[in-house]
Amino acid sequence: MSIKESDRTIASVDIHNFLRARRSVRRFKTDSIPVPVIERIIETSTFAPSAHNLQPWRFAVVADLSARIRLGKALTTKMRADMTATGVPQSEIEMRVERSMRRLDEAPVVILLCRDVTAIRKDEPEEVTMAIQSVAACGLQLLLAAHAEGLGGNWICWPLYAQEAAREALDLPNTWEPQGMFILGYAEAEPREKNLKELESLSLWI
Ligand SMILES: Cc1cc2nc3c(=O)[nH]c(=O)nc-3n(C[C@H](O)[C@H](O)[C@H](O)COP(=O)(O)O)c2cc1C
After folding, report:
1. Using CB atoms within 10 A as the burial measure, which of 12, 18, 83, 179 is most buried?
2. What does the pLDDT read at residue 12?
3. Domains in the chain, please, with CATH?
């Protein structure tokens, strides 16, 4: 079950520091990511916990540039329509669409993380929430596994607003419900320092 010692890229025993060092990365070098690295990231992410151990996560790996552009166009078409309907100025819409397309264009790999709607115990709202929470746990594990490989990544929520369009653009099975999109690559620059909320304001010790 564990990966081989020779495959390991984290030698540090300081797992806390490793976890704290993960950051969102949105700009990448042009270097491609070797396929075994992508496979290892996905495999590690599947070790995430899931409600009833149903493992509802599914992965659409979009490495091909034309498929990334197809996905980007599907998402930004919906984005443009939604923003137009809410009165966002045209110049801002075009700026955001262009930025979104650039991100998909520059990232060497895009992974669309989906929930299989059939991987559920009962069709009850709480069970649906648990399945979505399980997929989210997998998403974090995916980002951490990418970090372990020296890669940067960013979780992007746009597919939530265009689930049908994303599924159609990639010709995914009908039961795959897109939950989030992950752009992965080698970071172009160091991230800025992170502002964290005061720890005291976040927890109650009862
Ligand atoms: C559910 C979820 C959705 C997110 N959606 C986006 C997004 O659409 N675009 C984006 O640039 N970042 C997105 N992020 C990344 C957050 O902006 C980022 O995690 C946060 O600012 C903290 O920074 P850090 O990841 O560097 O610690 C998302 C993160 C999560 C967990």
Report:
1. 179
2. 47
3. 24-188 (3.40.109.10)
pLDDT of 21-30, one tens digit each? 999 999 999 9
Q: Which residue's CA lies nearest to atom 29 of ligand 1? A: 155
CA–CA distances in Å: residue 24 to residues 60, 178, 184:
20, 20, 10
pLDDT tens digits, residue range 115-138? Answer: 999 999 999 999 999 999 999 999
The three-class DSSP label of residue 115 is: strand
CA of 154 to the centre of ligand 1 (A): 6
Verify whether ligand 1 is closer than 6 Å to residue 24 (CB atom).
yes
Q: Which two tokens stand for residue 28?
A: 């990448």
Which residue minimizes the CA distance to atom 3 of ligand 1?
157
Q: Is the CB of 154 under 6 A from ligand 1?
A: yes
